[in-house]
Amino acid sequence: MTLWLAIPVSLLIVGGALFAVLAALGLLRLPDVYTRMHAASKAGTVGSGLLLIAAGLGSQDPAIFIRALAGFIFFILTAPVSAHLLARAAHLAHVPLDPSSIRDDYARDEARDEETVHPK
């Protein structure tokens, strides 16, 4: 690998590793399932995406780079959706929010949906 390619690949690997560490710290330090899920989905998506791009560039093979790019795009499209669905399932299972949470938008939506289904 030439120097002109080694430097960007190295920077992408370091950046991806930093975002992965931030996601792991978020899982350990944040107070409830909803904020933990947010940290894991956002920082984890960026971290793994940077690592995938670094692997694709480092391979110096266009076919591998295209596969890595396709994997990154797929991950960007699916990770936030799956995190939202997991948060919704946790809320429907009545997993409590941390007391420091300021507002619960899902509760407002449930009240609106309940009023629509069963009007008074």
Structure description:
The protein has 120 residues and is an all-alpha fold. The protein has one domain (3-117). 82% of the residues lie in helices and 0% in strands. It contains 4 helices and no strands. The protein has helices at residues 3-29, 33-59, 62-92, 105-117. Helix 1 runs antiparallel to helix 2 (33-59). The longest helix has 31 residues, at 62-92. The radius of gyration is 19 Å and the shape is elongated. The model has no long low-confidence stretch (mean pLDDT 88). Pfam families: PhaG_MnhG_YufB. InterPro entries: PhaG_MnhG_YufB. This is Multicomponent Na+:H+ antiporter subunit G. The chain crosses the membrane at residues 6-28, 40-58, 64-87. Keywords: Membrane, Transmembrane, Transmembrane helix.
Mean pLDDT: 88
Low-confidence segments, given as residue ranges, are: none
Rg for CA atoms: 19 Å
Beta-strand share of residues? under 5%
SS elements, strand count:
0
Elements, N to C (H/E): HHHH
Distance between the terminal alpha carbons, to the nearest Å? 70 Å
Q: In which range does the helix fraction lie?
A: over 70%
Structural class based on helices, strands and sheet pairing:
mainly alpha
The best one-word shape is elongated
How many domains in all?
1
* Main sheet record: none
InterPro entries: PhaG_MnhG_YufB
Pfam families: PhaG_MnhG_YufB
Organism: Rhizobium aquaticum
Protein name: Multicomponent Na+:H+ antiporter subunit G
Short structural summary:
This protein has one domain.
Detail the topology: elements first, then pairings.
Layout: H1 3-29, H2 33-59, H3 62-92, H4 105-117
Helix pairs in contact: 1-2, 2-3
